[in-house]
TrEMBL record:
Keyword presence, DNA repair: no
Pfam entry (one): Tt1218-like
NCBIfam families: IV_pilin_GFxxxE, type_IV_pilV
Keywords on record: Membrane, Transmembrane, Transmembrane helix
Name of the protein in its database record: Putative type IV fimbrial biogenesis protein PilV
Domain Type IV pilin Tt1218-like: 30-94
Record-annotated membrane-spanning stretches: 12-35
Signal sequence segment: none
Entries under InterPro entries matching the protein: N_methyl_site, Pilin-like, Pilus_4_PilV, Tt1218-like_dom
């Protein structure tokens, strides 16, 4: 007896193939979402690093007013629209205003008229500048914190867990707080040309 085998696919084979293809597409979509989240976090960290470096460079250029740079700066800090930037102390105030604008992304906007929104800054940023010798030569630390999209608790005992910049503003346990910190020694030039 000679039986011929049918050519083609059975309905079960087609359903299995469609199921495997659908699972692969769902995995690809999940990977795309994870990649976008990682890209956003990376862009936020890169912006924080650039702003932190800018803060330290401006402090190095204006060592006469180092104490004017220390403290906390966030979206609620107010500055006059007509600042006089002449002189070291006034320059420090102008620099702090510029830092705030960079943090908030005021230079990058979308929309027109009353529908303008800032698109280039950090999400709910806070900038803290601290020093053991504010105003004089010493170690200066710039800490920038912002709100991440996903909760992530810092490791117990890490610097991120013990840092107080923006403490309590990013979730009950700071689980949404993201931190970038940079430190350097700044030498304040004295009258004789040495560090004081």
């Amino acid at each position: 007896m000679n039986r011929s085998h049918p050519n083609g696919f059975t309905l079960i084979e087609v359903l299995v193939s469609v199921f495997i293809f659908a699972v692969a597409l769902l995995g690809l979509a999940a990977l795309q979402i994870a990649a976008r989240k990682a890209a956003f976090e990376s862009a936020q960290r890169s912006l924080a690093a650039a702003i932190g470096q800018d803060v330290l460079e401006r402090m190095r250029l204006n060592t006469e007013a180092l104490s004017g740079y220390t403290g906390t700066l966030n979206a609620n800090t107010t500055f006059s629209d007509s600042l006089d930037c002449a002189g070291p102390a006034n320059l420090a105030v102008c620099d702090r205003r510029d830092f705030q604008r960079s943090l908030l992304g005021t230079a990058e906007t979308t929309g027109t008229g009353t529908n303008v929104s800032k698109t280039g800054g950090l999400a709910n940023p806070t900038l803290c500048v601290t020093s053991s010798n504010a105003g004089g030569s010493g170690q200066y630390t710039v800490t920038i914190v912002w709100r991440g999209r996903e909760p992530a608790l810092p490791e117990a005992g890490s610097e991120n867990a013990s840092d107080t910049c923006g403490n309590g503003q990013y979730g009950t346990n700071n689980e949404y707080r993201r931190i970038f910190r940079i430190s350097t020694y700044i030498c304040r030039e004295g009258v004789s040309g040495g560090c004081i």
